[in-house]
Amino acid sequence: MDDLIVEFLTETNESLEELDLDLVNLEQNPNDKDLLGKIFRLMHTIKGTCGFLSLPRLEKVAHHAENVLGRFRDGDLEVTPGYVTLIFESIDQIKYIVGEIEETGAEPDGDDSALIAKLDAAYEGKDISGESAPAAADAVAEEPQEKEEEAIVVNIVQKDLAPGEVSLEELEAAFAAAPGMDGIVNPADVKEEEPAAAAPPPPPPPTPKKKDEEPEEKSTESKGKSTQTLRVNVDVLEDLMTMVSEMVLTRNQLLQIARAEGETMFSAPLQRLNHVVSDLQEGVMKTRMQPIGNAWSKLPRIIRDLALELNKKIELVMRGQETELDRQVLEMIKDPLTHMVRNSGDHGIEKPAERLAAGKNETGKIVLEAFHEGGHIIIKISDDGKGLSEEKIKNKIISNGLATEEELEEMSTQQIQQFIFKAGFSTAEAVTSVSGRGVSMDVVRTNIEKIGGSIELKSVEGKGSTFTIKIPLTLAIVSALIVETAGEKFAIPQLAVRELVMVSEHSENRIEYIKGSPVFRLRDRLLPLVSLSEVLNLRPSVHLQAFAEDAKKKGPVTKDSEEKESVSVGDGAEDDKTTPRNLYIVIAQVGGYEFGIIVDRVFDTEEIVVKPVAGILKNLKIFSGNTILGDGSVIMILDPNGIAGASGSIDTDLQEDAQTDAVLHADSDKKTSLLLFNVGDNTPKAVPLSLVARLENVKMEDVEYSSGQMMVQYRGTLMPLIPFNSSVQVSHEGEKPVLVFADKVQSMGIIVDEIVDIIEERIDVKLSSTQPGLLGSAIINNHATDVVDIAHFLNGINREWFKDHDDTPFNSDSGVNSGKTKKKLLLVDDSPFFRNMLTPLLSVAGYEVTSLERPADALELREKGAHFDVIISDIEMPEMDGFQFAQHVKSQESRWANTPIVALSSHATPQDIERGRSVGFTQYVAKFDKDTLLNTLAQTLSN
Amino acid sequence: MNAEDIKTNSSSRDYLTVMIADQKFGIPVLQVQDVLREQKVTRIPLAPPEIAGSLNLRGRIVTAIDVRKRLNIKDDNKPKSSMSVVVEHKEELFSLIIDRVGDVLNFNDASFEKNPSTLDQTWRDVSTGIYQLKDELLVVMDVSKLLDNVGGEKI
Fold it and tell me: By C-alpha distance, which of A691, A688, A831 is closest to A761?
């Protein structure tokens, strides 16, 4: 029999047992919505699975039963005993069919039209409790439950009468007191709990019951065939695991002793013990871990069938099947995953024609991906379909009464999208056998949260959706890379390790330094490096020091530097050969962020069982746990997340965000025109061309000095000049290129050594800089390039030079803040460049600046109760633009309704300004106009 | 000492005596799980200085505390090899590194005194009182207090 079918049968049998119990409970608490939801979902699962195994008969029964349950759940129908009986009947029919499939491998012949007719009648709300429908046409199908009920009652009466002790009145009174329900419930209960073969308890079930039991008996028998697994309590496994670990340690000690002793009489049995223990350890580990691919095996077929059924072209890409996860966790996410992939195919991917019209490939793509990340398993399901329609969701929310229109107005797209996780929510217009009942996402979330996981959704209308499921790895047996730095060993989870690179100063792979921070070029990417010994505050390795030393000298190793560390390395080049100064870079990945960890040595990988660190060390974020190695020593397990965090300049949260936002921001990665120039050192510098007013060649003879400040007469005024840094050679002769920056009437010039080029490139600052005057480093034109913070220079010069003049555009003393507490300013701009550019400028002008990438984040801050004196917002932003953002900010109930908001835009047409005013912007300022911005801010705040 | 303690213990108690820099300390014997010779300890970078590291005690990871550091005792006269006393605190094991372990002694409550008010604050914080022995004094160590404030943080 097909594996899929066997699995389905096992699952279905389990579900059915659960369903019976739940129905009984439901009858006693007909208004229990949770219970109704649960029963409904169970039915839904049975139906859904049937649909893909081509079991049409079974599917039909489940589908109709689900319809009725759906009405119960929605509160349209009241749950009466009669209805419950009907559902029981359907379940029995399902059980019978399931039993037959187990026996023969195929659905039995026959039809269930009578039962379905009753279900449909119930669905339409007709009272069916009085009906006594004829038995189903199927030969083995049981009598309708109503008949059984009558029979039981009759039976009880007969039994009570037989002893002749009870009067009819008493009997009637007793019968009235005991609600009819009991008569149904008890036999049902009994039927469930007693083994089919056991003697029936008193009152003995009436004859019809026997028939009823037939299929049941079959299914219990054959169930033994399909379940070849044994369920073991997790605690037992965990205990086993601990004991095996102990055993391994003891064995290792024994082996060590044996090795020291040489050949003894113990050697042979010890060897045997060694093997057995290894196998045992492996076995116990295996009991808990399974590759996620097991849960995915059904999916290709499901997608294929789905594509056929819906006339779509869908390609399913699966990555990371080998990712192992806890068996229990796997079980729990199996169904949600199936649901979600099905959803992607059904709701997400459009029909080929639609796709072509939207300029997409005819074939839709669903990508299923699993990987480990920082002690979690991440499962991503993404499609390139039509994404979630905000309009549709809104309509549905309103029609379901989940929120009012006004409330929705306040919500961000993301908040609105979250509604799809609410019970009873589906935007599919038609309820199909595939999906659209609003059950799936609710189930998915419930199941995932049950195991302590979380689910996130990112969707862009027209582009597709990505669901990210994060599941914690509880009992984690991970393989870890053992590394050494400063004589101490540490374990790095292998999952975070992308690759290992050996570096030495003579090889092509070498560590380069930008202003003292080590970086590494890995296949055209610039990777920031972190020295493990530095992060851990351990004595830095001699090797690394030597490396840094060399780098300071610039260029290849000179004899001079060799000699300098000859204390540690030895003398001259010859010695150097025998003790090559090699270092290793462990390329690690945290979220979408890659960086290198410099270590002294790399050992083996080892399978380790992560144990939590002592409570006293919990605040050391850099360790995710500790473990005992094979040799019995304790080793600390490093958390790559923590290392990234501890290395200071790297904000892992932002990085993670940046990664998840990648889909949304793909369009916003605009290219910027950059001016490249050189100053004294070898690192090229870049500045956005838009900020540069002119390029001039200034004759050094013309340079004059006034109170130590270099200036030059330029277009009728005096223009201050400053060398970019001290390494720019300023002589008194010849010409020097000068970058002229202009602020309305004022100009200033920065002297550089050489203008290199003007290029179009996306600025992606890889490393932020602590060096004043630099924003950070980026790869531009395949070179590590420093991105210059012009604001720093403008500010520096203005403080000193503009002071004596009347208009002091951005002198911090003249600001609104003199002597008072700093004004709080919120800056929302999707471009990291402008955020980086404006934040220092505004800070220096005396504001306390909070800069955010997305308006949604700002609105979130508002929810959290943050307060700002003024808001500056960009206009062109993905997701939510500045106009929408202003509307949110200025809306009636907004707590920020009175906060002035200033628009910042690169193009300010009169129409834009008009529109800006109408949505509530206080002012509209062009992006590069620093004076106006600062003056406007001061003005706005003083009003 | 409260009345109940005295009743249940017939006014005397057993202590494991340990030596740290010529000072005798007593650890209530019921709290002691193990006494170990010097062990291989894995250093934990970034941890508070009084945390010497962690070690493997029969498959359990034990945090080693340098009691000298904890009590602000200088490392002068530190013996070549130390010993440690394993205690359990809040379901975790700790190994208290001390100089040397002495006998288990029984002390009469009559000789028990509160900490003198002039005693060093750190010591007062981790001691319940002093026993007057014939020719020396014994400081009673309060293991929970000793461990609760390691690194200035509550565990």
Answer: A688
In this complex, is the C-beta atom of A634 within 8 Å of any C-beta atom belonging to chain B? yes
Whether the CB of A249 is below 8 Å from some CB of chain B: the reply is yes
Looking at the complex, report in whole angstroms how far the Cα of residue A591 sits from the nearest Cα belonging to chain B.
Answer: 25
The domain tally of chain B equals 1
Single-letter amino acid, residue A640: P
pLDDT the model gives residue B18: 92
Q: Provide the residue range defining the domain that includes A345.
A: 293-472
* Same domain assignment for residues A283 and A377: no
**What pLDDT is attached to residue A158?**
38
Which CATH number is A595's domain given?
2.30.30.40
Question: What are A338's two structure tokens?
Answer: 């199936």
Q: Does A609 touch chain B (CB under 8 A)?
A: no
pLDDT tens sequence across A699-749: 888 888 877 778 888 777 778 888 887 777 677 777 888 888 765 456 778
- Please give the biggest Cα pair distance in chain B: 46
Out of A632, A659, A686, a domain closes at A659
Note the pLDDT tens digit of each residue in A405-461.
877 887 777 777 777 777 666 555 444 444 444 456 777 777 776 665 677 788 888
Taking one residue from A and the other from B, the number of pairs with CB-CB distance under 8 angstroms is 67
- Cβ contacts (< 8 Å) between B59 and chain A: which residues? 242, 245-246, 249, 628
Asked whether residue A599 carries a pLDDT value surpassing 80, the answer given is: yes
Nearest to A634 among B48, B61, B92 (CB): B61
Question: For chain A, what is the mean pLDDT?
Answer: 70
CATH number for position B113: 2.40.50.180
Determine which helix (DSSP H) or strand (DSSP E) holds A696, and give its type and residue range.
Answer: strand A694-699
* Closest to A749 measured CA to CA, from A737, A757, A759, A758: A737
Best of A616, A627, A631, A633 to substitute, by most chain B Cβ atoms within 10 angstroms, is A616
> How many domains is chain A built from?
6
- A171 & A316 share domain: no
Q: Domain of B37?
A: 3-152
CA angle A827, A832, A834 (to 5 degrees): 60
B86 CB neighbours in chain A (<8 A) are none
Kindly indicate the confidence band of residue A218, based on its pLDDT and cuts at 50, 70 and 90.
very low
